[in-house]
Amino acid sequence: MYNFPMPYPDELLYSTVARAGVRMGITSPKELLEEVFGDKMVVATPDLPGHLRAIARHYPKSAELSVETLAYRHTLFPLYAPFVQEERRQRCLSLLACNTRGKTHLSLGVAASRIKPPSVLRVCPGCVGEQIARYGEPYWRRDWQILGANSCSLHGKLVGTRSPRYGIHRHSFDALTPALFPHEGQKNCSKEDLRLGRRIRDLLDMRARPSPSYDQWSQFYSALASDQGCAAGRHMVHSLILEKILAAWSNQWLKDVGLPVANSPSCWLRALFQKHRKSISYLEHLIVLEAFLQAEWRIQNVVRQVARLPKTKPAAKLTAFQRPHITPDIQDKRQMWQFYLKRYGVKNGRRLGGGAAYASLYRHDRDWLLQINKRYRAGIRRRVSRVDWDCRDRELFEKLRDIQRAQPMGLDSPRHSKRWYLAQIGRMTSIVKHLDKLPLTSAFLAACSEDIEAYQIRRIRVAIHAVMESGLPLKRWRILRVAGLNEIRLKTSARNFLNEVD
Ligand SMILES: [Zn+2]
Question: Where are the domains of the chain?
C-alpha cells in the first residue's frame, strides 16, 4: 500500500491522482487507474470527476475526506449545487461517488450549457511559482478551470497550457509541470474579471447545504426585480432589467464570457426572471446578482435567504377588483398593460413593449381593456385642457390687442364694446363662459372695451378734430352734429367733457 497524496488547498482531484502517479513512478495511464481506482476504464475528468468513494478510501478516517467534502473542496461541484434542486443535488453526489459516466455533467446542465468551458487546462504562472516555493511541486487548482474566472487576483490573466481538458487520452491524468505552459509575462486582468472572480471564489468556498427549489429561486428573482423597480406587477420589464445589467457589465465582456444581452425574446436574462424550470448556470446568477445587489453581498447569504422562502408559491390573493373569472394570467396582463398605459399612453404603450399584453387582453378581456383605455384618455384630455386655458388666454389677449390696433378710431367705427371685441374673435359663448379661466383676456376687456360714455367721448374728440381741420368755428351744436350725437342722449361724463371744450 502506497501513501496516496493529500490534496492541497483547492487542488483538483484530477491533479492529486496525477501526483500519485508521479510519486509511485507509474508512467502508464492504465496502470495508474488500476492502482488508484481498481478500474482501467476510469475517465480523467478535471471538473466533475466520479469515483470519489474510491479516492476517499485512500485516506485515513482522521483526514475527514468524505465523498461530500471531496466534491465540495476539490471539484467544481459547488458552482452548480445551489442552483439545482435538492433532490438532484443528492443524486449528483451519489453519482460522483461512483462511476458517473458523464451523467453528472448532464444532470447539472454542464453538457447542455450555452457557455462552453475553456478547452485546455489553465494555470496562473505566478501561483505555480509560489506553489513550487511552498510545497516543492506545482498542482492544478480548480479555480483556474472556471469559465468567467479568467484571472488570478494577484498575478493577472490565466494562461492556457498544452494539457487538453478533455483530450484523446481521456484516461491519462497529466501532472502539472512548468513545461506545459509558456512563460511570458501575464496580462493584466479586467475589472470585470476581478469582480466576477471574487463572486466565483465565494461560491467555490460554500460548504454542503440543501439547495433551494426552482420555485424559491423564481420567487427570489421576482421580488428582486420588484424591489429594484424592474417589474410591472408580477411582470418583469425586460428593458429595465437590461439597463441594470449593462450599467454593471460591458456588453463586450458579456460577449466574451458567452452571455451577450439584448432586448430580444431569446435573451438568457428572461429565463432567470421567469419561472425556473431547469437549473441556470452559476455565471448567469452571479452576473445578475452582482448587477442588482451591487453593495457587499455574499452568495452564501443569498442562498440562505432563498432557502427560507415558502417552498411553494402561495396562490395570489383575490382583491375586490378581481372577479373570479379573471385568471392569474389575465391579472398579470392587466397589470402589465396598466404599466405601459400610464407611462406611454395607448398608442405608444402598444409600440413600446405593451403590445403582447394589449393583444391578449383584446382577445380575452376586451371590456376591461376598452374601459381602462377610455378612462386614461379622459384623464389625458382633462390634463391637456387645463394647459390649454393658459395658452388660450395668451392667444386671445394677443388677438384682442391686434384688433384694437388695427381698428380705426374714426366716426365710422362702431362702439368697441365687450361684445364687439368677442364677436371679432368668434366663439363668443365659450369665452364668456370661461372668463374666470382667462385672466389676461378679461383684464383687457375690462380696460379697453368702450361703454356708452367712453364711446360718446371718442366721437366728440374725433368731431372736434374734424371741425378744427375744416377751419369752421368750434361750436357745441356743430361738434354734436358731426359726432352724430344729440344733447338729450348725452351721458353725464360725455357732457362734462364737451362742457370743457366750450
Ligand atoms: Zn496567481
Answer: 13-195, 212-307, 383-448, 452-501
State in Å: Cα 187 to ligand 1 middle: 12
Distance 21 CA to ligand 1 centre (A): 25
Ligand 1 center to 11 CA (angstroms):
14
- The C-alpha cell at 93 is 453526489
Q: Is 53 left (phi over 0), alpha (psi -120 to 50) or beta?
A: alpha
Å from CA of 128 to ligand 1 middle: 7
Q: CA-to-CA distance for 59 and 55, rounded, in angstroms?
A: 8
CB 488 within 8 A of CB 456: no
Write the CB contacts of 483 (distance below 8 Å, at least 6 apart in sequence).
Answer: 411, 456, 459, 460, 462, 463
Q: How far apart are CA 157 and CA 302, in angstroms?
A: 29
Helical ranges in 249-281 per DSSP H? 251-256, 268-273
Q: Residue 378 has what pLDDT?
A: 60
Cell numbers that stand for 381 in this block:
384630455
- Give me the count of residues in the chain: 502
The pLDDT averaged over each successive group of 10 residues in the chain (502 residues) is 84 96 91 90 90 93 92 96 94 90 81 78 96 96 92 93 79 92 87 92 95 94 89 82 93 91 88 88 95 87 92 53 63 84 82 85 87 74 58 85 82 87 81 83 86 90 87 88 88 86 69
Give the integer Cα–Cα distance in Å for 280 and 301: 18
User: Taking phi first (over 0 means left), then psi (-120 to 50 degrees means alpha), and beta for anything else, what does residue 222 get?
Assistant: alpha
Q: How far is the CA of 124 from the centre of ligand 1 (A)?
A: 5
Nearest CA to 438 out of 425, 420, 451, 450 is that of 425
Please tell me the distance from the alpha carbon of residue 42 to that of residue 169, in angstroms, as a whole number.
Answer: 11
What cell numbers appear for 235 in the block?
Answer: 411582470
**pLDDT for the residue 236:** 83
